[in-house]
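Researcher: Structure prediction, please.
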Amino acid sequence: MRNRDALLGAYVAADSPVHRAPLALKSAAVVVLSVLTLAAASLPVSAAAAVLIVAAYAGARLLRQLLTPLAVMWPVLVLIAGFQVWSAGVAAAVLTAGNILICVAAARLLILTVPVPELLDGVVSLVRPLKVFGADPERFGLALALMVRSLPYLLGSAADVRASAKARGLERNLRAQAVPVVIRAVAYAQQTGEALAARGIGDAGEPEETGDPDGR
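Model: Predicted structure follows.
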């Protein structure tokens, strides 16, 4: 599995109780679990949340996917835990790193058990009441869809560049890794913009240009 799929995950079709559960229920469970875990900042609460996460993955028949994000996240978690050990002790390090992993695992289970179109439709439906304040749910859904599509590409691009730099003995050369990633990201953004423009999707407030430059 590539790094980009390890962190974000991709929908896995199955007929489990977790897959069949309504999107609203699963989304609410993820939000409540994450908020309570982070707000409590307590080892017993985090341990209970971890047990619930394991049970949910087991119910979805996705236990093999539970620790997959560690393949991407472990360097960041090690840095965070190291800083916490130095500044606040071992217990704080375990709590902080553990809570991050719990929240990521909970959100990832939602992605693994809900098809992307259904997930996006659910977000658009959630935003629809905000139309009275001038929000555009469809445009928001489009932006979210682009983000969902772009993040795996950018993560994969960074991984490919890092692997290429390592093969050339440049794994410690920041410039050799950063410049290609930036160039690829800009090129991808331009291609995406051109594709949207070709389909007539642009800024809603842009006035149409008519007549010659003198206004005639």
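Model: Residues 116-201 form one domain.
Researcher: Thanks, that helps.
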